[in-house]
Amino acid sequence: MKKLRIIASIALVGLVAAGLAACSTSGTASGGKTTVNWWTWDDQQAAAYKLCLPGFEKANPNIDVKITQYNVNDYFTKLTAGFVAGTAPDAFQDSVPQLGIYASQKQILPLDDLIKKTNYNLGQFDVGVASWKYTDGKQYGIPLDWAGAAIYFNEDMIKKAGLTDQDINNLTWNPTDGGTFDKVVAHLTIDKNGVRGDQPGFDKNNVKTYGIASLAAQDFNGQTSWNPFVATLGWKLGGTKAAWPTEIPYNDPNLVSTLNYIKKLGDRGLMPKYGQFTVSSADQMGAGNVAMAQDGTWNATSLTKVPGLKVGIAPTVKSADGTRGMISNSNANNIFAGSKHVDQAWKWVTYMGSTACQTTAGKTATFLPSIASALQSTVDYQKTQGVDIQSFVDAAKNNELYPAPPMANGQELADTIQPEFEAFFTGEKGDSIFQTMQTQSQQILTKK
Amino acid sequence: MTFSNPAPAAVDTAAARRRRRADGRRTLNSNAPSHRGDARLAWILIAPAGIGFLVFAVYPTIRGVYFSFTDYHLLSAPQWIGFANFIEMFQDQTFWASVLVTVYFVVIAVSLTLIISILTAAVLHRVTKSTAVRGLIILPFLISGVVAATVWSWMLDAQLGIVNEAIRALGGQGIQFLTSRQWAIPSLAFIQVWKNMGYTSIIIFAGMQTIPASIYEAGRIDGANERQMFFRLTLPLLRPILALVLVLNVIGAFQVFDIVSVATKNGGPANASNVLQMYIYQKGFGQFDFGYASTMSLALFVILIIITFLQMRLLRANESDNA
Lengths: 448, 323
Known about the structure:
- The complex is a heterodimer of chains A (448) and B (323).
- Chain A has 448 residues and is an alpha/beta fold.
- Chain A is built from 19 helices and 13 strands.
- Chain B folds into two domains: 14-85, no CATH class; 92-314, Orthogonal Bundle (MetI-like fold), CATH 1.10.3720.
């Protein structure tokens, strides 16, 4: 019996040891080299930033950079698990809504000391620095890129409708009669019998081509849907506060009338109804289901490269007096507080935040560099590829962007607001929902 | 094992008595010398499973119960806040809405699964004995939930799905199966039924095979037709199996997550398919509010215990009419 017990305990010890060994295989150094892990959620950007590796590793022969990409749906879960287990990457791409929670939980490093020590110039960035300051006044992120919205349109359909690129570039809009935007959308809509949306006898229940892809999005900031519209009326996501807002003015009459205008576009048969199309706007344009689509700047290359389709890019709508506006989300690099190679990670982060790397990687136009000169070379390079994204640069130059305000409990706000927008756009709830949303935003944003 | 002299040493110590009382099912012979000392071996043999149970079930459950009384955001240490999470839960309208959505899903999914499975099993039992058919029927169960949900979400797609193509070809209007409030839960329940009915059928079918043929013979001699025999003989004799299947299906349906997560993404539209597990996941892994997520998990746990207990009692699941 004793023998059996000994065997059993040896076996148990062996099992535990094997288990522990399996846990502790996080690679660090190989042959005097340090490996810096960097994560992104965008496969195209992962490929783009790989173009920076040769330059970086030449200048820093002792540092290996390992770029890993996870799908955005799992990215932040994986990151959190990494924080807890201590296996998070040394540096990673991050989105503004996460700043509050990561900084308050002390999972990312304030970078001020490193900036001072290495004399790193934050002034080179034209967008995004302010979005990455936490309430303690410290800088937690080094900007990478910014993103906004644009209107993509099918050149052939525009021509057939007797319109020009200039018409689309100068769409005006107001919530009462919809301005020229409304007229163009109606004119571009064609029903099964070939009747246009602004002609008598238009059958709104049997539409072949809609004037514009759905603007009835459920995300809490409407970045590529309603936000560029309501921004022309001066509405901003954080209300009067540029950072750490205490409420989101969802009950503002300007927003309410904008959303009602957008919902009515669907009821009038000029825009697909909520949930009617399930594929991307590139696919909808490719299939001829829609003549125009407002989408993210990051989709410029995929939208303009749809086979057999000539797609133009126009800025978002403007008000009668020429005001344009849109929210811009600025992604940045953070450094994990538990990183064992802070200095090496900082080298990689600052290299990514240099004009050299931003120019190299930015050429792919999979993102818009936060450094203006790099952005310009992105635009120039894309022009040689037949894609004109000058309007993105103009938006940045003309101060049409307002940065997404960093906020507390961003994820909870997003999760709470989304079903309410869905309820509004599906017609389940009326205008009363907006007061509820405003109250909820207040509760969530001011919650400790 | 013919000799049976009384055990000399450990006759009636208090420990031995306690042991005997604790284990009522032990055979009379268990105190015989040849069996003494088996306990140690038994413990060693149980150990792997037992340790796994302690480490992966008991410990996490106790920890989960503890977390439900704390404010725990994963990255900082949990803070004891008493019943605050429970009070929040009772006032949380989204929680109660998702309980209702879950119950709606369970009712549709379980009742359909049971009806279809019993019919299928009856056909398997009385009509065909082909193993190929049996294999085919269990096939959907072998597919992972994520794959099943992905494929069905393509087929049920409002715009491009083959189901809607068929409906339109027949002259009907397209249906937003997964993107409208009235259809979301029934569509999800349908996917669940499709996936689980094969497995349930096979269990019921196996139960049917344990019913002696002589009973049916007697039935036939008494002049019962096929339908009468099904309702008067098969179903009553199957009761323990049906109870088991019902309990398993109810628990499984209450815990639905993968299908919802894949087919309607975030429990949409407008929380129409926001089942309890989805909401717990959102709170825990989306917003890192693990304290509150644990509280809701505990509530689900309690709900399941009560429902299972009631089912077992009402169906007298531990006794058969077949004895």
